[in-house]
Amino acid sequence: MLKLSTSDPGFDRDFAALVNARRESDADVARDVRTIIASVRDEGDSAIAAFTKKFDHHDLNETGWRIEKTDWIAAYEGLDPALRDALELAATRIAAYHEKQKPADSDTIDSAGVRLGARWNAIQHAGIYIPGGRAAYPSSVLMNAIPAKVAGVERLVMVTPTPKGEINPLVLAAAHIAGVDEIWRVGGAQAIAALAYGTGRIAAVDVITGPGNAWVAEAKRQLYGVVGIDMVAGPSEIVVVADGRNDPEWIAADLLSQSEHDPTSQSILFTDNASFAERVADAVDLQIGQLSTARVARDSWDANGAIIVTADLMEAMPLVDRLAPEHLELACDDPQALFDRVRHAGSVFLGRHTPEAIGDYVAGPNHVLPTGRRARFASGLSVLDFMKRTSFLQCDEAALAAIGPAAVALAEAEGLPAHARSVALRLTK
Amino acid sequence: MLKLSTSDPGFDRDFAALVNARRESDADVARDVRTIIASVRDEGDSAIAAFTKKFDHHDLNETGWRIEKTDWIAAYEGLDPALRDALELAATRIAAYHEKQKPADSDTIDSAGVRLGARWNAIQHAGIYIPGGRAAYPSSVLMNAIPAKVAGVERLVMVTPTPKGEINPLVLAAAHIAGVDEIWRVGGAQAIAALAYGTGRIAAVDVITGPGNAWVAEAKRQLYGVVGIDMVAGPSEIVVVADGRNDPEWIAADLLSQSEHDPTSQSILFTDNASFAERVADAVDLQIGQLSTARVARDSWDANGAIIVTADLMEAMPLVDRLAPEHLELACDDPQALFDRVRHAGSVFLGRHTPEAIGDYVAGPNHVLPTGRRARFASGLSVLDFMKRTSFLQCDEAALAAIGPAAVALAEAEGLPAHARSVALRLTK
């Protein structure tokens, strides 16, 4: 864990190194993924079966390609009632938040008499990737599937690897609650290729979202353009800005909630109180030992954790903007004053009673957020990722007479005579 | 040019072939582009100078790296007044249309007492790529730069190759009108890499948009994630749906306005009148001979043009959706009835007096639109491409008590104890 203070003589250099440190894997999987994609495109289902046998160690023709709806319903009905209520509450709140993101159409006539507008439509077919293994989270199913269904996606396809054929019933139950339409027992780059190109069994989709390992991420990147995708995702991160009046135990738990995700995760505390910084560091050390995720959390905190002491909390804000964190907690009495200074962050958690984890599950906003400083240019997953906009315009004779001559002049200046003629012919009649 | 009729026995097969035909270059430029990107990242300005000498045949240290603002102003002031007025009208109308795209922030408190919201901010630094040579269009400058400036981008950087040092004064004038902040005499994949990573001279940006050749497109694709980019662009296309009461000369000009762009462009007419189809085909042949762009238009029309006769216009609409065209003209008396059936199209031009070219220049909607069937999942360039959204939430003790237990239950079920603890600690106090 790195300790810095803005009053250190080498602070600028050390902080710049922290900002620019790359935690993302450099694994060169591009060539393997190209091979997998080409095989699936050319050979379809037989390539899918072969890669599944190789990587997931089961035979799709024995385990079954699709997971049947009766299985999801059984998983849903078999849930512990408290857990089912928790999933239902989360789903309801996520749907309510995303419902408000639905964009409005426009259709107006301007002073030149030109009708101008934009119409939004849902993507027709969407796919979501849900990892198997450690990161098989029902909350990921809800966060990817619900915005798609709120948008109006007609066919929502989930793909998920089932190593040795096993699948997490919580994931199935979440898919049932979220309204997924199909689930396929396929993972890895081959699943992304199947969704992008379609195979004999699996019909193609138009957009693919959802988390995955380096192969999945690279497959999405390579197929970007063939299909739409959500943002390229990297390791998770949290920045907490906290004054000395917080309970150090609470802040330590917040930092660890990010560290326990993955050894590449990052947790950073800014505080204006040096002794509070020490107390949080001690509380982190104490709490780590009590976690079933201790090994991951310890690796992450040791390698990527940081505590930075500033003269006051406001001094932290431009530094936070340089980090453009995925998650930002503002734990103080007047979080709004700090929030007004935030320009680059995926999601912000205001005040002492808003731990980041509340947003991972039940608050409502999406937990799929831009990582690795991408909040400078990217947003969290939303209904807009599952919709697209068609612009439209309509001229009558008078409107075309008003604006047409300028189009003719510009088309001629650009050396495009058929453009000019298509307008000019309609001006002379 | 392909002639089809929905009454042909082989229509389904022939139309499917048309839908699936790939007009995009398969040039394998990925390796070259990887090399260029790595050189620029590692060596900065010296790599830029070397690639510019190699590809654009001039020495940046002699011609100058930046084009100075005095040069843009001179280009603007030297414009023919009619052309200046046309550019100004276009800029004003484009700005007015895009102004309405600015998204609203939200900030509400729900029934559980949870404050939930979203706040939009402009991207801070954006870059636009403007090609040199045949496609050096001032309209592209307006269509890329104005949405950025309407969004609130603080620093808008234009890069453009100047083969042998020459640049189109119309492009400079358009940059001046649109409010561009910097112009660099750099093009190709090396310009995209410079914008993404920054060099000694050129500071990095957060988002890059704008058209380009296969190298530029591949560089954007490879750097997607390091920066934000607009959609992957392919050859341009138009679909015209027209009844027999149109002037065949008008419709022929509309088809050719797409064909003249590039040999890979595509123009398709759907009509319910076979003799009108013949008259349009004849008019196309006649008009091509009169164009300064005849060679390109002829190649494109011969290779990729199509006329499809349907029983009635409504029969065309599901076929149009399968093509998901970049541009769609509906030239008939009641275009709204057809438009109501359109789901996948980049931009729609309604009625007999709305040639597509009016939208290329002065109508207001963006002319950067999804090509190659990408209207199934992508939208035209907009203010949203230059903004990003930060979600936020705030709980007080009561709100956390209402929704916190569900988060604890889900975190425990996912095996993430620090997540659970960060919420649970705040529930017991």
TrEMBL record, chains A, B:
<feature type="binding site">
    <location>
        <position position="261"/>
    </location>
    <ligand>
        <name>Zn(2+)</name>
    </ligand>
</feature>
<feature type="binding site">
    <location>
        <position position="258"/>
    </location>
    <ligand>
        <name>Zn(2+)</name>
    </ligand>
</feature>
<keyword id="KW-0520">NAD</keyword>
<comment type="pathway">
    <text>Amino-acid biosynthesis; L-histidine biosynthesis; L-histidine from 5-phospho-alpha-D-ribose 1-diphosphate: step 9/9.</text>
</comment>
<feature type="active site" description="Proton acceptor">
    <location>
        <position position="326"/>
    </location>
</feature>
<dbReference type="GO" id="GO:0008270">
    <property type="term" value="F:zinc ion binding"/>
</dbReference>
<feature type="binding site">
    <location>
        <position position="360"/>
    </location>
    <ligand>
        <name>Zn(2+)</name>
    </ligand>
</feature>
<keyword id="KW-0862">Zinc</keyword>
<feature type="binding site">
    <location>
        <position position="360"/>
    </location>
    <ligand>
        <name>substrate</name>
    </ligand>
</feature>
<dbReference type="InterPro" id="IPR001692">
    <property type="entry name" value="Histidinol_DH_CS"/>
</dbReference>
<feature type="binding site">
    <location>
        <position position="190"/>
    </location>
    <ligand>
        <name>NAD(+)</name>
    </ligand>
</feature>
<feature type="binding site">
    <location>
        <position position="213"/>
    </location>
    <ligand>
        <name>NAD(+)</name>
    </ligand>
</feature>
<feature type="binding site">
    <location>
        <position position="261"/>
    </location>
    <ligand>
        <name>substrate</name>
    </ligand>
</feature>
<keyword id="KW-0479">Metal-binding</keyword>
<feature type="binding site">
    <location>
        <position position="129"/>
    </location>
    <ligand>
        <name>NAD(+)</name>
    </ligand>
</feature>
<feature type="binding site">
    <location>
        <position position="258"/>
    </location>
    <ligand>
        <name>substrate</name>
    </ligand>
</feature>
<feature type="binding site">
    <location>
        <position position="419"/>
    </location>
    <ligand>
        <name>substrate</name>
    </ligand>
</feature>
<dbReference type="GO" id="GO:0051287">
    <property type="term" value="F:NAD binding"/>
</dbReference>
<comment type="similarity">
    <text>Belongs to the histidinol dehydrogenase family.</text>
</comment>
<dbReference type="InterPro" id="IPR016161">
    <property type="entry name" value="Ald_DH/histidinol_DH"/>
</dbReference>
<feature type="binding site">
    <location>
        <position position="414"/>
    </location>
    <ligand>
        <name>substrate</name>
    </ligand>
</feature>
<dbReference type="GO" id="GO:0000105">
    <property type="term" value="P:L-histidine biosynthetic process"/>
</dbReference>
<comment type="function">
    <text>Catalyzes the sequential NAD-dependent oxidations of L-histidinol to L-histidinaldehyde and then to L-histidine.</text>
</comment>
<feature type="binding site">
    <location>
        <position position="419"/>
    </location>
    <ligand>
        <name>Zn(2+)</name>
    </ligand>
</feature>
<dbReference type="Pfam" id="PF00815">
    <property type="entry name" value="Histidinol_dh"/>
</dbReference>
<keyword id="KW-0560">Oxidoreductase</keyword>
<dbReference type="GO" id="GO:0004399">
    <property type="term" value="F:histidinol dehydrogenase activity"/>
</dbReference>
<feature type="binding site">
    <location>
        <position position="327"/>
    </location>
    <ligand>
        <name>substrate</name>
    </ligand>
</feature>
<keyword id="KW-0368">Histidine biosynthesis</keyword>
<dbReference type="InterPro" id="IPR012131">
    <property type="entry name" value="Hstdl_DH"/>
</dbReference>
<feature type="binding site">
    <location>
        <position position="236"/>
    </location>
    <ligand>
        <name>substrate</name>
    </ligand>
</feature>
<feature type="active site" description="Proton acceptor">
    <location>
        <position position="327"/>
    </location>
</feature>
<dbReference type="InterPro" id="IPR022695">
    <property type="entry name" value="Histidinol_DH_monofunct"/>
</dbReference>
<protein>
    <recommendedName>
        <fullName>Histidinol dehydrogenase</fullName>
        <ecNumber>1.1.1.23</ecNumber>
    </recommendedName>
</protein>
<dbReference type="GO" id="GO:0005829">
    <property type="term" value="C:cytosol"/>
</dbReference>
<keyword id="KW-0028">Amino-acid biosynthesis</keyword>
